[in-house]
């Protein structure tokens, strides 16, 4: 997929710095309208003619994950709507938010700090739907060590290598915040990016000392007798950092507000269905990604996927404290909107 020079520069900035100084985004209702005749530019979705209204295709990763877009499609929640997913192949986790922010894909789901950093760097992106949430029985991520490593306490991580799925997201910031509170020198830890679907094996072969793994892939580590679970993110912050939202390319939302509402409605319905039918959702995910059912861990989702502000402010505070964004650069309301969610209350829309 071609990326022009300006987009390549933006992606490089995010990859190297995690965030940069630039103007924050306006609320969607105030987004500037693009000039007419721009439909041939990258980021404009394909429109397929069919019976009735045109169907808008949104570009989306085809990743081996427990994902509401895939579940909504399997459940038929896009039927009768004006939008459908157009899968564009596998995309590495660290690339998803930069690619949404430049329009190479139209929607993506990654953690809040990545979206905040993208907004701070000037990318055109907005959170439009809450996603996963952390419960004690269904955490967002789990921490594992090799059973024979002797690692059992936070202080034991000093001098060790910790594998996690990307810099700039929950695994980095939630972990560092917790470890510092436990008196751990996080600068004495070697942080290594290891994809979730490779983390169990990398830890079992002792190429890393600790692995931070998200569902559904944490299920294999949970049942691997060579490994021991240390903590979950629920143990670290009570779940405050566990919201994994869905974000949209700003231009897509401006040009296709009805399709954006259709998508948010479909995944919100799917989220509520998953909460009510966790085992059936696991079966669908198992079949889709080719993982043995007993190893697929469940997800829990925010009710109706309505975005709330505390999880966003939590990460703004962390990013400011870490020096990743200037103080006051990004406000909570720069990051999200519930205007596309048909289940949002008037208070959530205010």
UniProtKB/TrEMBL annotation:
Domain SsuA/THI5-like: start-end pairs: 63-281
InterPro entries: SsuA/THI5
Pfam families: NMT1
Classification via Gene3D superfamilies: Periplasmic binding protein-like II
Swiss-Prot/TrEMBL keywords: Signal
Xref: PANTHER family: ALIPHATIC SULFONATES-BINDING PROTEIN-RELATED
Full protein name: ABC transporter substrate-binding protein
């Amino acid at each position: 997929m071609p990326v022009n020079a300006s987009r390549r520069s933006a992606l490089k900035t995010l990859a190297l710095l995690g965030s940069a100084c630039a103007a924050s985004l306006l609320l969607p209702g105030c987004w500037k309208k693009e000039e007419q005749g721009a439909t041939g530019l990258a980021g404009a979705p394909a429109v397929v003619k069919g019976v009735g209204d045109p169907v808008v295709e949104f570009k989306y990763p085809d990743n081996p994950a427990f994902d509401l877009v895939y579940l909504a499609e399997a459940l038929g929640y896009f039927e009768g709507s004006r939008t459908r997913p157009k899968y564009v192949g596998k995309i590495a986790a660290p690339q998803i938010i930069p690619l949404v922010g430049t329009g190479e894909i139209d929607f993506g789901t990654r953690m809040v700090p990545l979206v905040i950093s993208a907004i701070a760097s000037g990318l055109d992106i907005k959170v439009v739907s809450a996603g996963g949430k952390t419960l004690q029985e269904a955490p967002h991520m789990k921490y594992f060590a090799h059973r024979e490593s002797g690692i059992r306490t936070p202080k034991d991580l000093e001098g060790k290598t910790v594998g996690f799925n990307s810099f700039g997201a929950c695994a980095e910031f939630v972990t560092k915040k917790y470890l510092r509170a436990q008196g751990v020198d996080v600068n004495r830890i070697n942080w290594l990016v290891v994809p979730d679907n490779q983390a169990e094996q990398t830890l079992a072969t002792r190429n890393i000392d600790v692995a931070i793994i998200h569902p559904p892939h944490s299920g294999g580590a949970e049942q691997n007798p060579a490994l021991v679970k240390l903590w979950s993110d629920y143990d670290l912050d009570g779940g405050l950092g566990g919201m994994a939202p869905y974000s949209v390319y700003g231009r897509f939302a401006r040009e296709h507000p009805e399709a954006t509402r259709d998508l948010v409605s479909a995944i919100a319905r799917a989220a509520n269905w998953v909460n009510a039918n966790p085992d059936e959702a696991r079966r669908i995910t198992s079949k889709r990604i080719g993982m043995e059912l007993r190893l697929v861990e469940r997800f829990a989702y925010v009710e109706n996927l309505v975005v709330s502000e505390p999880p966003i402010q939590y990460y703004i505070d962390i990013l400011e404290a870490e020096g990743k964004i200037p103080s006051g650069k990004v406000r909570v309301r720069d990051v999200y909107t519930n205007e596309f969610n048909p289940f949002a209350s008037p208070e959530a829309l205010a």
